[in-house]
Amino acid sequence: MSLHRSGLLIVFEGTDGTGKSTQLQLLAQTLQEKGLPVVITREPTDGTYGKQIRELYANRDAVSREEELNLFLADRREHVDQLLLPALQSGKIILCDRYYLSTVAYQGAAGLDPAHILARNDFAPVPDLALLFHAPIQTGLNRITQGRGEELNDFEKEDYLRQVAAVFSQMDLPCIQRIDAARSIEAIRCDILERVQPFLEKLQ
Ligand code: TMP
Q1: pLDDT digits over 33-60, tens only?
Q2: For the segment 12-32, what is each residue's pLDDT rounded down to a tens digit?
Q3: What lines the ligand 1 site, CB under 6 Å?
Q4: For residue 98, which atom of ligand 1 is closest to its CA?
Q5: Cβ contact 31:38 at 8 Å
Q6: In this structure, is the dihedral angle defined by the CA atoms of residues 34, 38, 156 and 104, taken in order, positive or negative?
Q7: pTM for this predicted structure
Q8: What is the DSSP string of 99-168?
Q9: CA-CA-CA-CA torsion for 108, 114, 116, 117, nearest 10 degrees?
Q10: Contact assessment for residue 80 and residue 123, using Cβ atoms and an 8 Å cutoff
Q11: CATH superfamily entry for domain 8-203
């Protein structure tokens, strides 16, 4: 979807445990230090549908794959209407942890057609920049279980994540820039800043 907008939509995408959320916070901090108007958000959101989605983490088979897709889309519609569009129109720089490329990859890997999923997202503003993080699946899983001390949920099973990564790797959209997430936090932080810089220049 295109619209007159004066802000920026930067989304952080990739398989679990690739360091997206850490890098999102670091970028937010840098932009805020420059005095820029940053909005941090994520999907699934903390709204009604987002909460229903989080309940699925423990028991994904409670709904069909189509119903699961519909929940992610309903959550996104609410997010677009209530936060993303107003923030874009008022010139904010939105940093969003996951967006519709996650739906294409995760629900695509669950058996739905990726092209069909993308088409069903035509109501959602196209990101200016989608930073697509990739690292070996095992690295990501180790970060979740050892680094964060968490158990893997139903969306984080190894074979499934390999399929998710395969869908991500086949994506070819103009907004995507791939980030090698198997490097140090600092190296990735600098890389991201360089990629974001041209978008900031266009804003001014
Ligand atoms: P996270 O909050 O740790 O990023 O977890 C969100 C999980 O939800 C993650 O495993 C990916 C999954 N997900 C989808 O399956 N489809 C989607 O559209 C989105 C946004 C997330």
Answers
A1: 999 999 999 999 999 999 999 999 888 8
A2: 999 999 999 999 999 999 999
A3: 16, 43-44, 72, 98, 102-103, 106-107, 155-156
A4: 20
A5: yes
A6: negative
A7: 0.95
A8: -HHHHHHHHHHTTS-HHHHHHTTTTSPPPSEEEEEE--HHHHHHIIIIIS-PPP-TT--HHHHHHHHHHH
A9: 60
A10: yes
A11: P-loop containing nucleotide triphosphate hydrolases (3.40.50.300)
Give pLDDT tens digits for 145-162. 988 888 888 888 899 999
Query: What does the pLDDT look like over 122-144, one tens digit per residue?
Result: 999 999 999 999 999 999 999 88
Compute CA 60 distance to the chain's CA centroid, rounded to the nearest angstrom.
Answer: 20
Structure-token pair, residue 123: 């109501």
Query: Which carries the bigger pLDDT value, residue 60 or residue 168?
Result: 168
